């Protein structure tokens, strides 16, 4: 039986190796050149997450499926004694200490000290005596154990995503005591079975618990991947977070590099000139995200193709735009454009005429877009009339922040240039007063109004993915030439682990 158990364990490991080999990923000679997103988790974050390791280990013990243990032994005067341990399950578990170490270019080493586990089940035994007297008995048992557990988790690429291999797992037993029918005192039956059952039980516990830990590690890796994939997708627009290179384990951080290509219907995104280098990120914060400006540019193009870059303004909002100041020029422009029609009977439409161009600079994120503006009036009892149409090239530099679970966008500079201007009240276009008023209005209140619409929309989108459930501490959004860095600290989101344990196990 023991030989068979060892063979099954060897077979399982061979199968794991074959699966990993068959699912290995292939990368080009310069993986950083196709890297659009980088995630770096530093050691302080790993230490924080390790505080929750006990829950996963407890889940591993409780979800492990312990097989029935059978065997026999020749005993002097009693003949052959056959035994079976059935219905083995965890009856109690406590963990005293857990430590984590990042072994550079190797593995995440987790050491669990003083795991006290109680197992219960039923012991059935029978023997044929020298006078062919057959006796069969069944008693409840409890096994008290004290275990140290060591796990080396390797990160690899499997099916283009991060996979965790925790098959390098060791259990060290400091104590393994068999109690029969609640009797804590040594007895002949206990003495008879303890030695040869204990050896078998250790092998079974190691195999089943380590297999369950490895399974949990792989399921957890898939869970995190699915969570990330869902976060970077909205309807038909999504990011390809396939790995661009093998995940890294350094002494002070873990790091994964992702392609970050935008996927939208027939839209084809190509990227091969990333400026990423590991030296661009530090190790002073718990979590870092590095984003190429290419991603932002491609997302803007996909949003344009999906007809998301447009808004309609009417009523009080329209009034606030055109009555930002009470001057003669303002009153004249309002009269010429709206021709006495109320704001409630007027509509302004603003939309992007072409793919916006986005570049990232130290001053902020620069958005350049050709924008169309159309104002129509609906006088009571008359036909609707378009009274103003213009096309403007607008360039805005925006600085972003995240506070109180909201995205904050602040325009720090803007430039506008008329490309087309048609006004019913000024068909010749010689009256510059309307243009000058509109130029000021767009810069002072028009652009802030558009941004004020984008802020809650993006915040709502991120919250729909669960971002507001995380306790994010002192986040910073830093722009550099060609890329953005988001760096932050966090407290562990207990809801995430509970959700994982409830839904996946």
β-sheet strand percentage: 35-45%
Q: What's the arrangement of strands in the largest beta sheet?
A: 9-10-1-12-20-19
What would you call the structural class?
A: alpha+beta
Got a strand count? Answer: 20
For the report, how would you describe the main beta sheet? 6 strands, antiparallel
Helix count equals 9
Overall mean pLDDT stands at 85
Task: Report helical residue fraction.
Answer: 25-40%
| Distance between the amino and carboxyl termini | 30 Å
* Element-level helix/strand string: HEHHEEEEEHEEEEEEHEHHEEEEEHEEH
Radius of gyration: 34 Å
Would you identify the regions where 5 or more consecutive residues have pLDDT less than 50?
1-22
Shape: elongated
What does this structure look like?
- It is a single chain.
- The protein has nine helices and 20 strands.
- It has 505 residues and is α+β, with helices and mostly antiparallel strands.
- β7 (233-234) and β8 (237-240) form a beta hairpin.
Provide a short characterization of the protein structure.
With 505 residues, the chain is an alpha+beta fold. It contains 9 helices and 20 strands.
Give the tags.
505 residues; alpha+beta; six-stranded antiparallel beta sheet; 9 helices; elongated
Helices and strands, with pairings:
Layout: H1 2-22, E1 37-42, H2 43-50, H3 53-63, E2 69-75, E3 79-103, E4 107-128, E5 134-158, E6 161-180, H4 188-231, E7 233-234, E8 237-240, E9 248-249, E10 253-258, E11 261-264, E12 287-292, H5 293-305, E13 310-314, H6 315-322, H7 328-338, E14 346-352, E15 357-361, E16 364-377, E17 385-403, E18 406-423, H8 432-464, E19 471-480, E20 483-491, H9 494-504
Antiparallel strand pairs: 1-10, 1-12, 2-3, 3-4, 4-5, 5-6, 7-8, 8-11, 9-10, 12-20, 13-14, 14-16, 15-16, 16-17, 17-18, 19-20
Helix pairs in contact: 1-4, 3-4, 7-8
